[in-house]
Structures are given as C-alpha cells and as structure tokens.
Design goal:
Rossmann fold; 7-stranded mixed beta sheet; alpha/beta; 4-stranded parallel beta sheet; 2 domains; 18% strand; elongated; 408 residues
C-alpha cells in the first residue's frame, strides 16, 4: 500500500471533519505511507492542490481539535464532473494525478452529487482497467441519501434546530398577548424536510414546542396556513412556525418565489432558495395585521460545532474509518451506510452499499410521519430522530471563544 486521499464536497456540516479524522486514523493504522487531502474537493485535485494530513494530524491534540472544527477543513467545492462520454481527457487527467502521487484509494465525503462523482470515477476505472479504489463517505445535513438509516451531519443540525427553536419560543412569548408576534423560522430543505421536521424535537416538559411545521413533502396551502394563524391568534400569546425553504404551492411554485422569481442556479442546476420566511411574514402581516418576525437559520444550522451531537461526531468518524477499511479490502464504487440495529437503547453499525443505487436518489420524510393536517410530526419521527441528537463534545476555548484547526 502506498497512499490514500480524501476530499470534501458540497455544503459543510458540523461533523464532516470528524470523517476526515476517521479516515486519517484508520489509514495510519493500516499502514498507508501518506494520507493526502484534496483542497477544495475534486476541483482542487484537478489542479493538484493537495496537502499531506501528517502535517496537521500526527498530533493527538490537533486530531481532537479537528473534530471540534466546523465547516470543511480541507475546503469544499460544488464542482460537477462532466459525463465520461466525450470528456475522457478530464478522467485521464485525474488518473494521471493518482498515479503520479501513487494513490491507491480515493475517498469523497459528501451528499447526492458527491456520490455521483464516486460513481463516475469507479465506472471509468472499471472500464479502463484502472487499479484505484473509490469510496463514498456520506455527509449531508439534509439527511436525504437513500439506503443509510441517516446521514452524518443531520443529528448535529437537528440538535441546533431544536435548541434554537426552544430559545426562540421563550423569547417570542416574553411580552404576552398584548404584543402577540407570529414568528416564522425558515430551515434548510429543498425537496426533503428532514431538517424542518427536527423542529418537533423542541417540545418537551419545559417547552410547548412550535405551533406548526411545514415540509416540502406536502403541498403548501396558503389560505389554510392563514386560517390556522387567525385561529391560533384568538387564544395564543405567541405563535412560532417552522417552514422548509423548499415548500411549494399546488402549482409547483416555491413559496419563496411569491416575492421574486429571479433566482440563480448552482453548478448542479439547483435553484438557490431563501426568503421563504420573509415572504410568508409579509403576507401574514398584510392579511391579518398581526406583528410578524422572520428568522432564517441559513448556514448557522450546519456550522454549529459548539452544539454538535456526540452521537453524530462518533458516527461521522466511524464512517470515515469504515471507508478506508473497505477500500483497502478491495471494495470500490460503494458508499458507507449507517444501520440502526436497536432503538432503545440506540445502537448503530456501519455497512457498505453499491453507489449506483445511491447517487442522485433523494430520500424524503415518510408521509406517514407527518400528521393528517400536514403541519406537525408524529411520534414515529420523534423516535427516529431523538437518538441522533444525544451527547455533547465540549469545545476547546481560548479567550472565551472556541479554538479551531485551520490549514496553513
């Protein structure tokens, strides 16, 4: 065995760096000479922007610090590899770089689009008799990768969402009915509402929870939404509602587009969504006269390593380790999955699955986990999600703020 390389792609999470830590730890245990990192994913790799992780992680303190560092330590990208047909020169360049650096295995940490990258690279290797192995390491706060029970990154984002909503609910209720405010909180989720569903975790013996939750899995009815708010306003002194950024009306239009249709798209053709809460707050104020407030969690929900779930951190590290082990054993064109073996007490193990059944497939929240009124989650969702937010890893503080590990 010579060398192994790992990269990060797509939107970061609070625990994506724990997967990099796991890759490094297992690769060193198995005797790889060098564990390289791509700077800014496959896009940086094509420019040979590569670092040796020994320069950072051969110190146990730095290893633990990396697990407490948000965002993508190696740098991420949203670069889409072209189709193989007609673009062989791009793939030849990739494999020439792999051979130049004597790299046996390439691991890529990301979501749906990143798994597509692993699929294409492994397909090219198979059709051209290339020896390198390719493994996908799951990562996405959206929790929308199929096959796997859940995705590393989701538990920490869910923990942040539930915690922040408990705090918002307390704040919004401060002034009582005389200053009733309708607070609409926008949470990430284009077509899958896993993150917004996590708002239901705010409810416990010390918190009444959010008043309504709207996911993209169901059609958003604006009139029904307004009627619900008017009815709640008759008795409640505070209203807090969670909405997915990707909720759509019956004609397929994103609610955020009710204010503007001019939206940019990314390299994968995804329309950039934001402003759903602000749009709804304006409509509610106009139609009801009630005071409104819009809050958009945006990147906060994926960057809050100070509030990461220890369960999530440990599982992110475990999938990184499993990916190295699988590739070393000759597996390729696969993704690591998490399999829940018990719910009470919660137990989970790692496995591997063919990337061709995962790439570009989106897993949505089961409709049966949404109530009949399509505005709350059922107990089945709570049983699924609550184990994923358990435990904490205390940040390392200096001068009152957390310390992070950064590239030189």
């Amino acid at each position: 065995m010579k060398n192994i390389i790992v990269g990060q792609s797509g939107g970061p999470t609070a625990v994506i760096n724990s997967s990099i830590a796991g890759v490094y730890k297992k690769a060193k245990e198995l005797g790889y000479e060098h564990v390289y990192g791509m700077v800014h994913g496959i896009e940086g790799f094509l420019n040979e922007d590569i670092i040796d992780l020994d320069d950072y992680l051969n110190d146990d303190n730095n290893y633990e610090l990396l697990k407490r560092t948000p965002s993508a330590f190696l740098g991420s990208c949203r670069y889409k590899l072209p189709k193989i047909e007609g673009n062989e020169e791009t793939y030849e360049k990739i494999f020439n770089i792999l051979e130049k650096w004597e790299i046996d295995c390439l691991l890529y940490t990301g979501g749906n689009d990143s798994m597509d990258t692993i699929k294409m690279l492994s397909d090219y290797a198979a059709s051209h008799n290339k020896p390198q192995k390719f493994m996908g390491v799951p990562k996405t706060i959206d929790n929308d990768l199929p096959i796997t029970d859940h995705c590393p990154g989701y538990g920490s984002a869910a923990k942040y969402i539930a915690t922040s909503l408990k705090e918002i609910i307390r704040d919004n209720a401060s002034f009582g009915k005389s200053r009733l405010t309708v607070c609409i909180v926008e949470i990430m989720g284009r077509h899958a509402g896993w993150l917004t569903a996590a708002a239901s975790l705010a409810k416990d013996e010390t918190c009444e929870g959010v008043d309504a939750i709207y996911l993209p899995e169901t059609t958003f009815d604006l009139n029904k939404f307004l009627d619900n708010i008017k009815e709640m306003a008759k008795t409640k002194s505070s209203i807090v509602i969670a909405v997915s950024e990707g909720i759509q009306t019956s004609d397929g239009k994103f609610v955020c587009e009710l204010g503007s249709d001019d939206r940019a798209v990314d390299a994968f053709g995804h329309k950039q969504l934001s402003g759903c809460a602000a749009t709804l707050a304006n409509i509610v104020q106009k139609e009801t006269g009630l005071k409104t407030r819009a809050i958009e969690f945006s990147t906060l929900q994926r960057a809050a390593t100070h509030l990461a779930s220890l369960t999530d951190i440990n599982e992110a590290e475990a999938v990184g380790m499993k990916a190295v082990e699988a590739a070393t054993n000759g597996q390729t064109g696969m993704m690591i999955t998490l399999e829940r073996t018990n719910n009470n007490p919660y137990e989970c193990t790692t496995n591997i699955y063919d990337i061709h059944n995962i790439a570009n497939v989106e897993k949505k929240v089961p409709i049966e986990w949404i109530n009949l009124e399509t505005n709350q989650m059922t107990d089945e969702f709570l049983k699924y999600a609550r184990p994923l937010i358990q435990g904490e890893l205390t940040p390392i503080f200096k001068d009152g703020v957390p310390v992070h590990l950064i590239r030189k």
